[in-house]
Design goal:
Chain lengths: 112, 112
């Protein structure tokens, strides 16, 4: 039962361009959504989050958009930099049980 | 000074053995977690503890037994290891609520 899905396993983008990562969810009970970034041989690190009552949150080069009717969120990285090359995980948070459920991840490669 | 540290980082062992992974956090968080990242790279919650009390126990075989001696530690003991237990196990901690999780670097377990 995969409640959070990232259907694109990988994405390649040119440095300076926009990276758009997509995430779909099936559970309407999520209270927050979070994005994590993971480098090889390291643990995931938090990137940005959005409350389920918002439709946009921006932090520097990172913006997350939430479309509740479509049960879809996206992460925009502008401009993309080589250091952004990593695996990005989308996650849904439920306050009941304090539980974070992750998607399968999208590997991003930013080419110089 | 590592915020969430887990040991060992690598563990290679034979089927049927029992092994433990230790985790410690120095962030003053009240909630700790174990996540498993399998060969398909999905990050799945196994357990969470809040103030040493078990909160989440997903459908994990009871060969896996977490122990939280205090709020700063959450250890994972695995009995009778099986081939399918091979994975990377991540410890994480947070304050209770929708804030970010801080992950350790992971412990790669290989069962031969």
């Amino acid at each position: 039962d995969q409640q959070v899905k990232q259907n694109s396993p990988s994405l390649s983008v040119q440095e300076g361009r926009i990276s758009i990562l997509n995430c779909d969810y099936t559970n309407s009970m999520f209270d927050y959504f979070l994005w994590y970034k993971k480098y090889p041989a390291e643990g995931p690190t938090f990137l940005i989050s959005i409350s389920s009552i918002k439709d946009k949150n921006e932090d520097g080069r990172f913006t997350v958009f939430l479309n509740k009717s479509a049960k879809h969120l996206s992460l925009h990285i502008v401009p993309s930099q080589p250091g952004d090359s990593a695996v990005y995980f989308c996650a849904g948070y439920k306050a009941a049980g304090n539980k974070l459920t992750f998607g399968g991840g999208t590997r991003v490669l930013v080419k110089p | 000074d590592t915020a969430v540290s887990q040991t060992p980082k690598y563990l290679v062992t034979q089927m049927g053995n029992d092994k433990s992974i230790k985790c410690e956090q120095n962030l003053g968080h009240d909630t700790m977690y174990w996540y498993k990242q399998d060969s398909k790279k999905f990050l799945k919650i196994m357990f969470s503890y809040n103030n040493k009390e078990l909160i989440i126990n997903e459908t994990v075989p009871n060969r896996f037994s977490p122990k939280s001696p205090d709020k700063a530690h959450l250890n994972l003991h695995i009995n009778s290891l099986e081939l399918g237990d091979s994975a990377v196990y991540f410890c994480a901690s947070s304050h209770w609520g929708p804030g970010e999780l801080f992950f350790g670097e992971g412990s790669r377990l290989t069962v031969l």
